[in-house]
Write a structure and sequence with these properties.
Transcription Regulator spoIIAA; globular
Length: 95
C-alpha cells in the first residue's frame, strides 16, 4: 500500500495524517518534517496507517520523545513494552 502524508496546519499545530505502509522508504520524508517543523506542536494521526515496520516505529518513537503526539494508534503495535521511547499505555480516546 502506498505511503502518503497529508499535512494540515491550524495555528501552531501541524497534523500529519499518515496512510498506507509506514516503512523505511517513507522515513526520510517524515524525518525531514520532524527537522523542519520545530517549534510547532506535531500530531501524527495514524488512523489510516495499514502497516508500521520497525523503521517506522523507531521514527514515530523519536517523534514522540521530541514531543509529538500520536493519535488513532492501533493497540496492535502501540502497546508493546519492548519498544523504547513509546508509552506502553493505550489511552482509549486514541491519544
Amino acid at each position: 500500500m502506498t505511503f502518503r502524508i497529508q499535512r494540515f496546519v491550524k495555528g501552531d499545530v501541524v497534523t500529519l495524517m499518515l496512510s498506507g505502509d509506514i516503512a523505511s522508504d517513507g522515513a526520510p520524508e517524515l524525518q525531514a518534517i520532524l527537522d523542519t517543523d520545530t517549534g510547532r506542536e506535531l500530531v501524527f494521526d495514524l488512523r489510516d496507517a495499514a502497516v508500521v515496520d520497525r523503521a517506522g516505529v523507531r521514527l514515530l518513537a523519536r517523534a514522540e520523545v521530541r514531543g509529538a503526539t500520536l493519535t488513532n494508534c492501533r493497540s496492535l503495535w502501540r502497546d508493546v513494552d519492548e519498544l523504547p521511547g513509546l508509552r506502553t499505555r493505550v489511552d482509549r480516546t486514541g491519544r
